[in-house]
Write a structure and sequence with these properties.
Blueprint (H helix, E strand, L loop, with lengths): L1 H20 L15 H14 L6 H9 L6 H27 L8 H15 L7 H14 L4 H4 L1
């Protein structure tokens, strides 16, 4: 019986990994702000936790923070519409599942990327209260009080 559960877990892991790999989280630039993207990302992350595949969260994060071929304006839009809300979501998810925010592979890089992408394209735009809260949540989640100064 134990062999069957290992095979089943491998099947689940491989299926989830394939679903993540085949997903384009960001729409074309003309489709901003993205609709349904946050829910899709959250579903994949919840599936990772629910199936004991937390390591696959990094696969989601790495796709989201990839900025190859992305200009500062689009990176800024991604930070505001997807990454910073994801930081808040992950913080709440980690807190609700363990009672405290514990390190998760890639979360520090997500926080740094979200902050960098936001600041790199904000120009003279004054951040909203919500964005300030997200930025502060990113600082707390990545456990790096110097991150806003270093960017």
């Amino acid at each position: 019986m134990e062999g069957h559960s290992v095979i089943l877990q491998d099947l689940i892991t491989n299926s989830l990994d394939r679903a993540i790999s085949n997903t384009k989280y960001y729409p074309k630039p003309s489709q901003y702000p993205p609709s349904g993207v946050k829910r899709q990302i959250q579903s994949h992350i919840e599936a990772c936790f629910d199936t004991k595949n937390e390591a696959l969260v990094w696969s989601v994060i790495s796709k989201l923070i990839d900025t190859k071929g992305v200009d500062n304006k689009m990176a800024h839009q991604r930070a505001v519409s997807v990454l910073l809300p994801l930081v808040e979501y992950l913080s709440g998810l980690l807190n609700s599942r363990s009672g405290s925010v514990e390190p998760l592979a890639g979360v520090g890089r997500l926080c740094r990327a979200a902050i960098t992408m936001y600041l790199g394209g904000c120009g003279n735009v004054e951040p909203t209260t919500e964005v300030i809260e997200w930025l502060l949540e990113a600082v707390v989640l990545c456990r790096d009080s110097k991150i806003l100064v270093d960017v």
